[in-house]
């Protein structure tokens, strides 16, 4: 009964989403207030219907209802409760339902935090999101119904993929999807602004906190995924340039560009058409990621079981959504106007430069990801593109980005002066060079690649420090404390996020240069020494988990005769699916990780053991956490919280394109004439 | 004409969509097996139903046969199984099973429940022979000729189309 209820709720949701897509939008075109007013109630109803479906599927998992095909394929009665719940998004059908659920969460958020927006704007935004929901609900119902029954009912389920039976996996997909789907808000804002013709600084101010929130979730999601790969895949890597990782990284790059470009549009009214394009791009890339993962066009460790009908459906959906919005862009954007002018050297130019670099980097990742597909489609053979390509292309593209990141925040809007910038930053640059050489020397080696990485990290630190000092140094009687208290959260957020990038680069550089990886054959009592740490193998014993058997080794680590830790790497065999899983033992420290994982058993009770020393690896994720914190600070800036935000006007009033209907001209003029 | 540049994103996307559509028809996992045209790897394994009797590669020389890799824990095997049972009843060629990474009792029970299409199943409990055959997903099916050379390999479940259009014509030409 519960699965049927869920199935019914999904059909109900589809009907509601169709109404939401049609009525409020039609209301804005025909100036019917009562139709526009339907947007919020319909969005709420849609959320409730999808919520019911989600709860029904979760209940089927919790109750071990193996008469539901999806539950039988992704769960087992021996599976612990938390993984039965995570099993809801452990396969294609359920993760799609999670996608739709997240979309509804965002919709509900937009509906409730948009009281200060004019009604036609809210109506258009929710309608656009309603159409996105229609597409995904249709996809779910036609090709991937999670509530399908299975007859005869099996005695037990096939179990959740063991790789997913991990705490990191419980929260990684929801975070990632919150990020992916979150860009639909920026997308909806952009599309509705293109329709309505009110593409202005006001629009940018509304879009910014939403974009930042989505960007934060995406950052958390990617970070969790990387951390999870590090400790469960058993070979100590943290990023593999796998097509699916790339699928999440591309929207992140576009989203990062969008966050910065929105800042310019809000403050200076410039780059409007570029910003709109980025908003469309970020969400399109999220959809493209969905297509790549679920259609089977690329092979990847993440790929879901594939079905050509699904691939065709998402492709059609992708073409409709992206094609329509880009056509709308081509039609409406030329009349948006350029906004205020700026000089060749100004903060606008520097930000635009960085934006372009980020998009180029994104394009490079896209090319690498799709290259096997392109060659295959042109009949030029099968190849795979791996880390060598991405490392070679990506690092040189990022170096100038980082260099500009240091300068941008110190440059003036509109017109900056090169001598002044040079004067302010020469010390920062000198300090960065010295610090890079010094830290390289301390770490043990001064090599070109390492120094470049360290230089980038220190350059960011030094320039953020210069910027901060310029903003808080005592002036006109105000002391450091008083001036620091006046710093807007948005500025602080930017600094914290940029420091996060520095920390990230620092971690990557040191791990790449100084990590030690050793695969050794170890018998009882054998030792191996890395960087002064003595690892002693103390044997393996068998133990039983709830749904697996494990071989668990004890490896004792000492340094200078003192005990550092006992480490317990495991090799697990999950009873149902039978694939072996490696659970690495990691001893985390501020400046290094010790990483031990079990390879294969060899003759006579000995094992192949991988013993790794990873300096500063946690700084990689620490840097990401700082970026998220920066985003959080910026998203909660005072001007987004107060309703009086509208009193800040952009420097120049841009010309609005001719609106589609008289109703919008009214709204548009009102906004532009607001004091 | 200035507004033409705003069409560039749409045009780029159009090209991308064409490639993605073409990509849907291709299978990235269809890796040409390096084993095709090569002699089957050497093996000597016990029978699933009789741990004392064994079968080796050389026993199979002189006849065209099919090797189907299966396991009781493999769900896709259950999907192709009825087809295989029916195919074996037509007695075109002997079908042998390779019971991959399984437990003897589970494998025997599974066959008695779902039907046994195999002349015999080789028991490969630790999966060594499966690895020699390059098995990376169960089920897999091999066609091996009289000289012990692998002529065809199917990764994943058999389909009626594959049996009818690829395997049967191949068997006819091999037996001619």
Write a structural description.
The complex is a heterodimer of chains A (675) and B (176). In chain A, strands 2, 3, 4, 5, 6 and 7 form a 6-stranded antiparallel sheet that branches. In chain A, strands 1-10-9-8 form a 4-stranded antiparallel sheet. Chain A has 675 residues and is an alpha+beta fold. Residues 643-675 of chain A have low confidence and may be disordered. Helix content of chain A is 63%, strand content 11%. In chain A, strand 8 and strand 9 (592-601) form a beta hairpin. In chain B, strand 6 and strand 7 (150-155) form a beta hairpin. The mean pLDDT of chain B is 84. In chain B, strands 5-4-3-6-7 form a 5-stranded mixed sheet. In chain B, strands 1-2 form a two-stranded antiparallel sheet. Chain B has 5 helices and 7 strands. Chain B has one domain (36-175): Glutaredoxin (3-Layer(aba) Sandwich). Classes of the chains: A alpha+beta (675), B alpha/beta (176).
Largest sheet of chain A: 6 strands, antiparallel
The whole-angstrom Rg of chain A is 27 Å
Q: Average pLDDT value of chain B?
A: 84
Q: What structural category arises from helix and sheet content of chain A?
A: alpha+beta
Helix percent of chain B reads 25-40%
- Terminal residue distance of chain B: 69 Å
Mean pLDDT of chain A: 86
The number of helices of chain B is 5
The beta-strand count of chain A equals: 10
The percent range for helix content of chain A is 55-70%
Strand % of chain B is: 15-25%
How do the SSEs of chain B run, as a string of H and E? HEEEHEHEHEEH
| Biggest interface | A-B, 37 and 24 residues
Give me the oligomer status: heterodimer
For the sheet with most strands of chain B, the description reads: 5 strands, mixed
As for the CATH topology of chain B, it is: Glutaredoxin
The CATH H-level superfamily of chain B is Glutaredoxin
Mass-distribution shape of chain B: elongated
Give the spatial strand order of the biggest sheet of chain B. Answer: 5-4-3-6-7
Count of the domains of chain B? 1
CATH architecture heading of chain B: 3-Layer(aba) Sandwich
């Amino acid at each position: 009964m519960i699965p049927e209820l869920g199935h019914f709720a999904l059909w109900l949701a589809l009907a509601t989403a169709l109404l939401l897509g049609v009525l409020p939008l039609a209301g804005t075109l025909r100036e019917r207030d009562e139709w526009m007013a339907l947007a919020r109630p319909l969005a709420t109803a849609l959320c409730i219907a999808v919520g019911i479906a989600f709860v029904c599927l979760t209940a089927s998992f919790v109750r071990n209802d193996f008469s539901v095909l999806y539950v039988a394929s992704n769960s087992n009665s021996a599976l612990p409760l938390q993984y039965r719940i995570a099993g809801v998004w452990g396969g294609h059908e359920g993760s799609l339902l999670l996608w739709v659920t997240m979309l509804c969460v965002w919709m509900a958020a937009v509906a409730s935090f948009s009281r200060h927006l004019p009604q036609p704007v809210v109506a258009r935004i929710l309608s656009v999101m309603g159409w996105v929901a229609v597409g995904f609900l249709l996809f779910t119902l036609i090709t991937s119904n999670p509530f399908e029954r299975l007859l005869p009912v099996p005695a037990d389920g096939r179990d959740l993929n063991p790789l997913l039976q991990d705490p990191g996996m419980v929260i990684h997909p929801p975070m990632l999807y919150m990020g992916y789907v979150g860009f639909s808000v920026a997308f909806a804002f952009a599309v509705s602004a293109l329709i309505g013709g009110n593409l202005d600084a006001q629009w940018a101010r509304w879009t910014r906190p939403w974009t930042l929130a989505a960007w934060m979730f995406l950052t958390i999601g990617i970070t969790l995924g990387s951390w999870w790969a590090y400790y469960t895949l058993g070979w100590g890597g943290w990023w593999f340039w796998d097509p699916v990782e790339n699928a999440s990284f591309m929207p992140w790059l576009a989203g990062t560009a969008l966050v910065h470009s929105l800042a310019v549009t809000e403050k200076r009214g410039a780059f409007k058409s570029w910003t709109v394009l980025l908003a469309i791009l970020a969400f399109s890339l999220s959809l493209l990621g969905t297509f790549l993962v679920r259609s089977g066009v690329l092979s990847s460790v993440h790929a879901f079981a594939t079905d050509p009908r699904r691939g065709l459906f998402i492709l059609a959906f992708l073409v409709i959504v992206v094609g329509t919005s880009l056509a709308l862009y081509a039609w409406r954007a030329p009349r948006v106007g350029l906004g205020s002018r700026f000089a060749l050297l100004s903060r606008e130019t520097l930000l635009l430069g960085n934006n372009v670099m980020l998009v180029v980097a994104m394009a490079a990742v896209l090319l690498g990801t799709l290259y096997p597909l392109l060659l295959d489609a042109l009949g030029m053979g099968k190849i795979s593109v791996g880390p060598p390509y991405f490392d070679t292309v990506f690092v040189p593209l990022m170096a100038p980005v980082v260099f500009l990141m240091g300068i941008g925040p110190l440059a003036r809007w509109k017109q900056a002066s090169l001598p002044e910038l040079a004067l302010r930053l020469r010390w920062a640059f000198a300090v960065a060079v010295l610090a890079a050489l010094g830290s390289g020397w301390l770490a043990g080696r001064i090599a070109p690649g390492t120094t470049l990485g360290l230089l980038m990290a220190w350059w960011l630190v030094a320039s953020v420090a210069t910027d901060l000092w310029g903003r808080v140094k005592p002036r006109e009687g105000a002391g450091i404390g008083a001036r620091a208290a006046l710093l807007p959260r948005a500025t602080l957020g930017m600094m914290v996020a940029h420091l996060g990038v520095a920390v990230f680069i620092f971690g990557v550089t040191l791990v790449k240069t100084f990590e030690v990886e050793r695969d050794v054959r170890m018998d009882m009592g054998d030792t191996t020494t890395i960087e002064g740490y003595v690892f002693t193998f103390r044997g393996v014993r068998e133990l039983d988990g709830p749904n697996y058997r494990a071989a668990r080794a004890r490896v004792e680590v000492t340094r200078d005769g003192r005990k550092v830790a006992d480490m317990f790497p495991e090799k697990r065999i999950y009873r149902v699916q039978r694939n072996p899983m490696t659970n690495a033992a990691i001893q985390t420290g501020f400046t290094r990780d010790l990483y031990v994982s079990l390879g294969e058993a060899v003759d006579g009770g000995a094992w192949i053991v991988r013993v790794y020393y990873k300096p500063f690896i946690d700084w990689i994720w620490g840097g990401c956490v700082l970026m998220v914190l920066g985003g959080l600070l910026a998203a909660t800036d005072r001007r987004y919280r107060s309703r009086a935000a509208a009193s800040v006007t952009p420097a120049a009033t841009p010309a609005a394109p001719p609106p589609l209907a008289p109703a919008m001209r009214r709204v548009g003029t009102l906004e532009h004439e607001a004091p | 004409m200035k507004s033409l540049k705003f069409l560039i994103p749409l045009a780029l996307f159009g090209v991308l969509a064409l490639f993605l559509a073409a990509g849907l028809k291709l299978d990235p996992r269809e890796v040409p097996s390096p084993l095709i045209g090569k002699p089957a790897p050497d093996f000597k394994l016990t029978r699933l139903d009789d741990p004392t009797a064994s079968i080796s590669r050389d026993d199979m020389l002189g006849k065209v046969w099919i090797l189907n890799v299966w396991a009781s824990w493999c769900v896709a095997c259950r999907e192709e199984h009825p087809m295989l049972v029916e195919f074996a009843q037509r007695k075109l060629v002997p079908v042998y099973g390779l019971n991959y990474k399984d437990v003897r009792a589970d494998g025997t029970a599974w066959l008695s429940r779902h039907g046994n299409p195999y002349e015999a199943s080789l028991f490969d409990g630790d999966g060594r022979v499966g690895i020699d055959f390059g098995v990376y997903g169960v089920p897999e099916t091999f066609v091996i000729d009289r000289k012990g050379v692998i002529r065809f390999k199917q990764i994943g479940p058999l389909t009626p189309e594959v049996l009818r259009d690829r395997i049967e014509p191949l068997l006819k030409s091999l037996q001619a």
